[in-house]
Amino acid sequence: MSLAFKRFISTGAKSAKKYMAPKPANGPTHAKLSPAQKAYLDRVIRVDQAGELGADLIYAGQYTALGHRQDLKKLIRHMWDQEIHHHATFDALQTGLRARPSLLTPLWKVGAFGMGLFGGIMGKEVSMACTEAIETVIGNHYNTQLRVLSNNFSDIKDLRTGECTHSEEVKNIQNHIKTFRDQEGEHLHIAVTHDADKARPHWLIYNTVKLITKSAVYTAERV
Ligand SMILES: [Fe+2]
Ligand SMILES: [Fe+2]
What we know:
Mean pLDDT: 90
Keywords: Iron, Membrane, Metal-binding, Mitochondrion, Mitochondrion inner membrane, Monooxygenase, Oxidoreductase, Ubiquinone biosynthesis
Protein name: 5-demethoxyubiquinone hydroxylase, mitochondrial
Structural class: mainly alpha
Number of domains: 1
Binding site for Fe cation 2: 83, 135, 184, 187
Strand order of the largest sheet: 1-2
Bound molecules: fe (ii) ion
Distance between the termini: 32 Å
Radius of gyration: 18 Å
Cofactor: Fe cation
Largest sheet: 2 strands, antiparallel
Membrane topology: Peripheral membrane protein
Number of helices: 7
């Protein structure tokens, strides 16, 4: 069975533990999140899980189309491996924090794999222009989430000291998002240094894929 197909039918992470903040032995260390904070965090997990599932399958599609090329095989595989890790992390966080997953998961799977495959069939330059557009949107999206988590989640009471801070659970999510944001930045750099701008017509491909990605993010946050 091909690796890409295995990713297509795989269902989530087996163990949530390794991606979660460790559970304190003597009960909770921080007060509960407010309903608004809990709702925002659920939305973060839902959209990021759907987004990383999409990214995993986009690179699976690209690898299917371009993995035979010696100049691209390692490069696409490197980005794909990082997306597999991002995807597994948000699968685990979604399970561990009992957030509701996106109801449109089958659509994200088919759409993402199709986009990666189609871009790859159109050639290296188109594929890289798609990556450039997607990673630009996702980098900004993660930066927005980091800003909100930093500003709106610093008032959770530490039950041991009475101080208001970020809880371990929130810090753990912030750390994952920071790492992934940096890796998406690396993918963007790879795309722009591997001829994304040589795709024709670059402006049309870039802006269309950007619009599709933004619409998918907007929808996955809500549905
Ligand atoms: Fe990612
Ligand atoms: Fe990425």
